[in-house]
Amino acid sequence: MKRKMLSLGLCAMMTASLLVGCGSGNTEGSAENVETSGELTWRIGGIGPTTGGAAQYGQGVMNAIQIAVDEVNAAGGINGYQISFNFQDDEADPQKSVNAYNTLKDWGMQILEGTVTSGACAAVSAETYNDRIFQITPSASSTSVIEGNDNTFQICFSDPNQGTVSADYIAENGLGTKIGVIYDSSDPYSSGVYQNFATEAANVGLDVVATEAFTSDSKTDFTTQLQKCKDAGADLLFLPFYYTEGSIVLTQANKMGYAPTMFGVDGFDGLLGVENFDVSLAEGVYLLTPFAADADDEATKKFVATYEESYKDTPNQFAADAYDGVYIIKEALEAANLTPEASNEEICDALISEIQNVNYNGLTGEGMTWNDKGEVSKDPKAVVIKDGGYVSVQ
User: Fold this and answer.
1) CA distances from 85 to 101, 159, 276, 317, 389 (A)
2) 96: which of 5, 174, 320, 357 lies 20 to 30 Å off by Cα?
């Protein structure tokens, strides 16, 4: 995957900030309307954090799915049947995610788009596998979510891909001569990206002068890790973790007078929305993503305009991945010629087969395809933060 990709639009790889839904509004209300009317519909569930530290991800995913559901329903549905959508908050907690899954299962969910974060998704994937419910995640990038099952598919890049592509991009564009790495060793997402970055960095000749870890119990003070990177002369920091910790790193680096180039991955999408964060500190930060909100193609412009009108916010990568997810499900269901009367197992088996025949052109990539492991193939893009917004870079 060594190519100078990543055109001005780091968004396209993975982010979102969703809240309720447009059109039908309350997702639980949608479900109740279906139950009282007796109308047969496709029941698609969603799970992700709409509260807590990762709320921007879950809110974005929820909102974007709702936009797509409203569009599909307005156009006649899937195989002539409307979609009912129900989204549950899991606060990015694996046990709460399983509880949310059980709530959706009791509701009658047939297909799950979620969950949003990797740890929670891995826990729920074990449940959907046992229950034979098809699952497609917009943003859980760890390979742990697809290991040991055949029914979970990813729309976002897997962690190995992110690590590899990041090293290639830094090397090919000469962004740093000495590289420092700070990562969360307790998080499968962060450690997975780091491991592949380290391997590829060695392959492409990057000089990694410092590698510093932290854990979930120590993610509020990064001064020790930053000082070690500074002392080693690192002029670029690779930061494969989430935007909340990213805002702390940027703030503490600034207080230390340390100003290397900062390079994040999709977890950094959301950085500009952190409460009480001085966004001027994010100026010049790079990230890889499959989606760029400033892209000028008609599909992106339409989605961004609808999202901004409905939610007064700019959609991130996770939102775009989630939006694509609804249309990917639609295409596979139509290819299978299924109706909502099919059993969950029949739907699951058909979608497992049909999604591997899908070649989808969406917001987050053209010619997207999937292998039998559930991994997606598509090209990433890069964006840089400039003047308080994301700008695509060549």
Assistant:
1) 14, 28, 33, 21, 31
2) 320
